[in-house]
Amino acid sequence: MRVVIAEDAVLLREGLVGLLERFGHTVAASVGDAVSLVAAVEEHRPDIVVVDVRMPPGFTDEGLRAALVLRTAHPELAVLVLSQYVEQTYAAELLGSGRGTGVGYLLKERIGDVGEFVDALVRVAEGGTVIDPEVVRQLLSGRRDPLRRLTPRELEVLALIAEGRANASIARALFVTDAAVAKHIASIFAKLDLPPAADGHRRVLAVLAYLQAEPR
């Protein structure tokens, strides 16, 4: 894959470059601010960008806002956001962009598990959705409809779907059969009133409904 990295911390940026190249990916550019990120994407047209939330000059949410700009201009561009915290203001908007495909939001501590991080990167580049469990927890804090229609077990299944897990992985995590997971997912789709569609698209719609429920 062709990757553009945007991270203001030089050591982490160079570490990501080395890591991705070691796994056979091409880092087309590595930059330290949001303006340079937008320029690099326009120049190199990568398959995916890896972007930090906090970047110069304000070190607030410049990277996340740049990611939204890029997703608007290039809906097919995959985006994996890395952060030390959950920026709730724009996170749900980013996760809903591009119909919720090819997007991920991970906390930086996940980079420590190299295999898991690279796997997440590939899944996002291939059109998947990967959301850190802590991001899910914070975005769902204090939320209700349509979630109140789901059982506790269905909420567990939906949280794991939001992490980008396939049915077999969900079954292993919950110590149930694949058939039980499929039954829970079918019930979730029905309770969230999701229209008939390819299961992959309905999974994305379910996650978005989960993240965008009205606060109490």
Please tell me about this protein's structure:
This protein has 216 residues and is of the alpha/beta class. It is 51% helix and 14% strand. Strand 3 (48-52), helix 3 (62-73) and strand 4 (78-83) form a beta-alpha-beta unit. Helix 2 runs parallel beside helix 3 (62-73), helix 7 packs across helix 9 (178-191) and helix 7 packs across helix 10.
Keyword list:
216 residues; alpha/beta; six-stranded parallel beta sheet; 6 strands; 14% strand
* SS-based class: alpha/beta
- Extended strand count: 6
- What's the pLDDT, averaged over the residues? 84
List SSEs in N-to-C order.
EHEHEHEHEHEHHHHH
Radius of gyration: 17 Å
Distance between the termini: 42 Å
Flag low-confidence runs: none
Strand content: 5-15%
Helix content: 40-55%
Strand order of the largest sheet: 2-1-3-4-5-6
The largest sheet, given as strand count, sense and whether it forms a barrel, is: 6 strands, parallel
Distinct helical segment count: 10
* CA-based shape: globular
